[in-house]
């Protein structure tokens, strides 16, 4: 099994799924994938999707009406007075052939740091920053669970953290003296460890739930999956009112290095199988192929470009598009969109400005 985050079912059978071709997809999957019990019992362990039990009502953390974002809070806890949470679990969620390590980290916040899907937490690593001779500053992490937490108590938060390492070109090896402070602290933490939290922060990545017919286009690289894992769980993995009313489309594009680096794929396959008309899932595996149409590595922008007509059509009809992951993803994305605009006789700057003005463009990169 790939890493500690092992799925008891078989591996995904294809890397492209969704509405188009959904029937053949379903037919080919039906033969190989056993039915996942719809019992509220997680098929993937403590951090896996706990699908809604029949008739489940998860409402105790909803606004009234549930889409009213006027009460969304930020900065309940600040660095000077952080909330002391407790680590519940740390699980490596990538396979052995993934370059680098990514962990799923569940934290108990005792219900004292409530958040909405799309927000982030801050983590204050312990110790003194030798460069500044004062305590280390806050690092932000996008929240990967819904407001209810993976255990649905409303008291936990899940983070998806990649261990930052430094590859020294002279040593031709990792230099432990230069490894990232907070990501290593988090990935090395143990159940029961106390952790200083700030936040929640950010409102740019919230979901416009007032329209149950919304199309969400989510574009992630690596740990940029975190907010979208939260979105998909909100839409398909719980009995909350937004999920129950959802009649739109959630379309995820995820770019990673190879199959072993896919994140939360087991859950996404469950959602996809149970909501074939409301979800699409497309992966770009840059180091593994297939190649892009120019014969080069398949990066996230190449995968989105394959569906440019459908994406532009959806945006014309009011879809919201979200980007999350490393900063380096945006130039490629923007160049691709510029090219598509030119081929359609559109002015890219005006087009982008229009999306921003209408609140359809959401970016959180780091
Ligand atoms: P730092 O100690 O801050 O070091 C930064 C980098 O410098 C590391 O790569 C380190 O290896 C390198 N370095 C250290 N010393 C040297 C040196 N002497 N010479 C050269 N290089 C050196 N990250 C996630 O993993 N998941 C998320 O969901 C996530 N969400 C985010 C959301 C937002 C809104 C933002 C702003 C950031 C997010 N991040 C996320 C990034 C995260 O906040 C941290 O920046 C990241 O974990 C690195 O922090 P660190 O303390 O480990 O590294």
Automatic annotation (TrEMBL):
Which residue intervals define the domain FAD-binding FR-type in the entry?
Answer: 80-207
- Transmembrane residue ranges: none
Annotated GO molecular function terms are: ferredoxin-NADP+ reductase activity
Q: Which residues are NADP(+)-binding?
A: 142, 162, 223, 286-287, 297, 325-326, 364
> Gene3D superfamilies given for it?
Nucleotide-binding domain of ferredoxin-NADP reductase (FNR) module, Translation factors
Q: Which family does it belong to?
A: Belongs to the ferredoxin--NADP reductase type 1 family.
State the protein's name.
Answer: ferredoxin--NADP(+) reductase
Give the species.
Guillardia theta (Cryptophyte)
């Amino acid at each position: 099994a790939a890493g500690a985050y092992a799925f008891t079912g078989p591996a995904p059978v294809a890397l492209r799924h969704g509405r188009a071709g959904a029937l053949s997809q379903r037919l080919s999957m039906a033969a190989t994938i056993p039915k996942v019990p719809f019992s509220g019992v997680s098929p993937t362990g403590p951090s896996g999707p706990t699908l809604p039990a029949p008739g489940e009502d998860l409402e105790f953390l909803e606004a009234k009406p549930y889409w009213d974002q006027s009460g969304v809070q930020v900065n309940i806890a600040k660095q000077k007075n952080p909330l002391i949470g407790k680590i519940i679990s740390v699980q490596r969620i990538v396979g052995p052939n993934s370059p680098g390590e990514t962990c799923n980290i569940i934290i108990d916040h005792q219900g004292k740091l409530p958040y909405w899907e799309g927000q982030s937490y801050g983590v204050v690593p312990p110790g003194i920053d030798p460069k500044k001779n004062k305590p280390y500053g806050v690092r932000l992490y996008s929240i990967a669970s819904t407001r209810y937490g993976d255990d649905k108590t409303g008291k936990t938060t899940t983070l998806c953290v990649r261990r930052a390492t430094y590859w020294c070109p002279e040593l031709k090896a990792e230099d432990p003296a230069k490894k990232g402070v907070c990501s290593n602290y988090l990935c090395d933490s143990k159940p029961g460890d106390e952790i200083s939290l700030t936040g929640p922060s950010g409102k740019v990545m919230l979901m416009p739930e007032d329209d149950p017919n919304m199309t969400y286009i989510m574009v992630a690289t690596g740990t940029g999956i975190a907010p979208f894992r939260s979105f998909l769980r909100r839409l398909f993995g719980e009995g909350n009112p937004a999920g129950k009313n959802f009649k739109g489309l959630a379309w995820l594009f995820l770019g990673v290095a190879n199959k072993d680096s896919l994140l939360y794929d087991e859950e996404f396959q469950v959602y996809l199988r149970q909501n074939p008309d409301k979800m699409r899932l497309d992966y770009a595996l840059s180091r593994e192929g297939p190649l892009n149409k120019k014969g080069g590595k398949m990066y996230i922008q190449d995968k989105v470009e394959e569906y440019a007509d459908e994406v532009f059509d959806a945006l014309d009809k009011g879809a919201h598009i979200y980007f999350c992951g490393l900063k380096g993803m945006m130039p490629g994305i923007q160049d691709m969109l510029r090219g598509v605009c030119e081929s359609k006789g559109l002015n890219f700057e005006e087009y982008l400005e229009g999306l921003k003005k209408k609140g359809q463009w959401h970016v959180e990169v780091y």
